Amino acid sequence: MLSIKTKTFQELSTQELYDILQLRSEVFVVEQDCVYQDVDGKDQNALHVLGYKNNVLVAYTRIFKPGYYFEEASIGRVVVKVTEREHQYGYDIMKASIEAIKYNYKVNTIKISAQTYLKRFYNNLEFYEVGEEYLEDGIPHIGMIRD
To answer: How far apart are CA 83 and CA 89, in angstroms?
Structure first.
């Protein structure tokens, strides 16, 4: 079971921020072989949902209030360390993120920009596809909503 912490950008320690950026880079840049600007100026306006196993960051998302990223509240940068995926921590971190949105923003509707190959994962969390598939940083994505 993951130990979950939710923090504003200002509440993050230097070590926590380093761990977040390292994990995101490890998966989104190195593993997915995608050169893109991960440090995008949006972290300062996000709530950060951190999932720890034995005091090591193994899962993470960032969430935004309605109207910041999309009209709806949103979850992004969903990531689980490659060596920990067999434990289904993606579901744990997403469920914690959904609850954090309900608690902090008092809304239920959430929109995400999902990598297309993860549609079934998000369907299992009650997200459904909206619109057409599109490329984001060279990777197929689809918009998805959860009411």
So the answer is: 11
